[in-house]
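Supplementary Note 3. Input sequence used for the single-chain structure prediction.
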Amino acid sequence: MALMEWSPRLSVKVKKFDDQHKKLVDLVNQLHDAMKAGQGNAALGTTLQSLISYTATHFKDEEQMMQANGYPELAKHKAEHEKLVTQVLDLQKKFQEQAGGGILTMTVMSFLKDWLVNHIQGVDQKYGVFLNAKGIS
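The predicted structure, written as discrete structure tokens, is reproduced below.
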């Protein structure tokens, strides 16, 4: 059973970004599945690297779309992105220093799930409404 399920409450109603958010849900579920199979530590390094790559592309896409459409909360949203990148890089550093402890794996999984839900339902929902009003879906 997956830790997270995609649902309409997570949709920002912009297909490109919904698809990218689904990718993050998949990453969290991959980590959860690996932990259930006793392979959480082995999967964490790969999952963190995937998350770092994902965020670079996803955040760039979101920020470009917001800038192109004059989104008034771009600076605030960008600061949220920068905060997440810093947190993920910090988690990756801790993982490398500790050779992947199980507690860190649980910490990362919980962090990703909580951040994803809170970020999408909070700040991402706002840009979704803004972009939808401009005819972008």
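The first helix runs from residue 15 to 36. DSSP finds four helices and no strands in the chain.
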